[in-house]
C-alpha cells in the first residue's frame, strides 16, 4: 500500500527565508501526490497536486513542489516565508489502484519575525 | 459556491454514548469521505461514500458507521464512545471521489468531539 513520510514534525524559519518541507512517498505504481495546509481550527486546503504531468508543480500562495521519482520525494518549497504561512502542512499520496488517500503525519511550520 | 459544511463544530459526550456527525458537501459533489485526526495518529481514513454507497473503508471498528443520502449529505455515527474517540473528525467532498487517485478533495472545518 502507498504511504508518505514527512521528515520533521516541526520546522521553524525566519520571515523571508526559504521554506523547505520534506515528503517521501512509497508506492508500487505511479503515485498522485498532494500537499495540503491546515490553519488552526480549519479543515485542510489543497496547495498543489502532482498527477503525472509536469514534475515541477506550482501551487497557491507561492508554494511549489518537485516530483523526483529517483528519490521518491515530493518536497514543498517557498522562496520567501511570510508570517501567514504558519500552519500545519500535510503531504498525501494516492494512486489509480486504491480508493483512498494516505496522509503523512504533518509538519508544523513556524515563521519567526 | 458554498464550501463543505459540518455540524456541529464542537461536541462533548461521555463514554458509552453515541454520536452523529453531519456533513454537507459542495453542490454537485457525489463523494464524501470521512477522516479522524488526532495528535498521535494523524489523519486516518474512515470511509468514503459515493452516490449513497460505501465505496471504501479504513481500518476502524464497526462502532464507526456512516451513510449518505440522495442529496449527497452524509452522516457519521459512532456508538459506544470511548475516550480514544476524542478527535477532530473531518469530512471531504469531491466530484468524482477517491477512485482513480487523482481527484482533489475539499475539506470541511471539522467537528471536534471530546469524550469524557
Q: How is the topology of this model organized?
A:
The complex is a heterodimer of chains A (about 110) and B (about 120).
Chain A: E1 3-7, E2 10-14, E3 19-26, E4 31-38, E5 44-50, E6 56-58, E7 64-68, E8 73-78, E9 87-95, E10 102-103, E11 107-112
Parallel strand pairs in A: 2-11
Antiparallel strand pairs in A: 1-3, 3-8, 4-5, 4-9, 6-7, 7-8, 9-10, 9-11
Chain B: E1 5-7, E2 10-13, E3 19-24, E4 31-38, E5 42-50, E6 53-57, E7 64-68, E8 74-78, E9 87-94, E10 106-107, E11 111-115
Parallel strand pairs in B: 2-11
Antiparallel strand pairs in B: 1-3, 3-8, 4-5, 4-9, 5-6, 7-8, 9-10, 9-11
Would you give an account of this structure?
The complex is a heterodimer of chains A (113) and B (116). In chain A, a hairpin with a 5-residue loop joins strand 4 and strand 5 (44-50). By secondary structure, chain A is mainly β. In chain A, strands 2, 4, 5, 9, 10 and 11 form a six-stranded mixed β-sheet that branches. Chain A has strands at 3-7, 10-14, 19-26, 31-38, 44-50, 56-58, 64-68, 73-78, 87-95, 102-103, 107-112. Chain A is globular, with a radius of gyration of 13 Å. With 116 residues, chain B is mainly β. Chain B has no helices and eleven strands. Chain B has strands at residues 5-7, 10-13, 19-24, 31-38, 42-50, 53-57, 64-68, 74-78, 87-94, 106-107, 111-115. In chain B, strands 2, 4, 5, 6, 9, 10 and 11 form a seven-stranded mixed β-sheet that branches. Classes of the chains: A mainly beta (113), B mainly beta (116). The interface between A and B is medium-sized, with 26 and 25 residues.
Amino acid at each position: 500500500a502507498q504511504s508518505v513520510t514527512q521528515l520533521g514534525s516541526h520546522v521553524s524559519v525566519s520571515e523571508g527565508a526559504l521554506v523547505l518541507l520534506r515528503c517521501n512517498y512509497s508506492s508500487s505504481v505511479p503515485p498522485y501526490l498532494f500537499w495540503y495546509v491546515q490553519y488552526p481550527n480549519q479543515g485542510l486546503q489543497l496547495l498543489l497536486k502532482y498527477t503525472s504531468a509536469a514534475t515541477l508543480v506550482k501551487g497557491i500562495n507561492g508554494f511549489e513542489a518537485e516530483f523526483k521519482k529517483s528519490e521518491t520525494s515530493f518536497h514543498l518549497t517557498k522562496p520567501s516565508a511570510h508570517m501567514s504561512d504558519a500552519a500545519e502542512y500535510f503531504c498525501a499520496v494516492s494512486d489509480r489502484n486504491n480508493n483512498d488517500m494516505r496522509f503523512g503525519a504533518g509538519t508544523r511550520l513556524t515563521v519567526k519575525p | 459556491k458554498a464550501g463543505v459544511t459540518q455540524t456541529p463544530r464542537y461536541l462533548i459526550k461521555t463514554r458509552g454514548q453515541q454520536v452523529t456527525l453531519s456533513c454537507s458537501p459542495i453542490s454537485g459533489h457525489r463523494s464524501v469521505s470521512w477522516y479522524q485526526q488526532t495528535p498521535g495518529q494523524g489523519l486516518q481514513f474512515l470511509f468514503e461514500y459515493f452516490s449513497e454507497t460505501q465505496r471504501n473503508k479504513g481500518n476502524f471498528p464497526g462502532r464507526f458507521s456512516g451513510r449518505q443520502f440522495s442529496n449527497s449529505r452524509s452522516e457519521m455515527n459512532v456508538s459506544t464512545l470511548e475516550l480514544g474517540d476524542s478527535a477532530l473528525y473531518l469530512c471531504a467532498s469531491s466530484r468524482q471521489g477517491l477512485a482513480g487517485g487523482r481527484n482533489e478533495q475539499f475539506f470541511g472545518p471539522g467537528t471536534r468531539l471530546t469524550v469524557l
